[in-house]
Amino acid sequence: MVLQSQQLEQETGIGYHSRAAAACYGRKQVEPAPMRIGLNSIEEEERATSMYRYFLRVLVLGVLAAYPALAGATILLFDQERDAATESTVGPTSSGGKLPADYGDHVTGAVMAVPGGFFTYGEGGEGFTPDVSVDIFSAAATATDPRVNLWQIGYGDLVNVIFADGPGTAGAPLLSARFTAEPGYAVDLYGFDLAGFGVDYVIAGVSVFAGATTLFSETDVLVQGDLSGPRHTTFAFTTPLSAPELLLQVDLSNLASGIQDNVGVDSIRFGQTPPHPVPLPPTTLFLLTGLALISAVLCYSNSRELLRLNKQV
Fold it and tell me: How confident is the model at residue 73 (pLDDT cuts 50, 70, 90)?
């Protein structure tokens, strides 16, 4: 009897005395439910907590990774000049105005305070360029004058462009832009636009150099500008041209001197490596952080609910 009871206890998990007491009171002995195969409650608790922490880490990292992704590349739009008389006040671009020598230097945002006012820049997707300086000049440049002027409209469909200025009403045979990065950084050139003043032109060429190395060169370049077909020509480098220093040259030497100023340049887009993240506005930061916290709470609540339902099975 004892041996049979012990064997029955091992098989059912119910002691002999429990069954005997149930029999004495006339109760029906309820067999225990089959043991659920899976994790016990402690292991399930640990698993739920681990899942919660995992989702929270993923969400936080996702928010942090999104911050630099929302930054913009530096795009030179040439929308400002300084007054011709004293060069002390910044104002909107006028046709014939001079390009400020410090435009494009060490850009940290879409709007930058500078002596005399503000410069503005376009935005792309690679980060601004606080570690890059820009020097734009024509072949007619002097020690005090880069001989690069601005113009509002008339160059295809572009607005506010630069062109190579020369003596009198003539232009200059070469327009150059040098991008120089601080030590430890590189400049990344993504592209730019060209347009002719009311007509199409074929110019001698466009080149980009890194020291003595030619990174890009194209000859007999068609520059759009008339009312038929495309209104401007775009150069876009899928893989940016990159080096500690880059020199972009627009060769106009095949044109007569009187029309070398009829080719304008606009929307020069460049970045730097490593990129420089741009801080998001506080409202955007709060929104992203709030969404991450809400998602984390929902993940935690769902894991707790699954744990409670699992215990009831």
Answer: confident
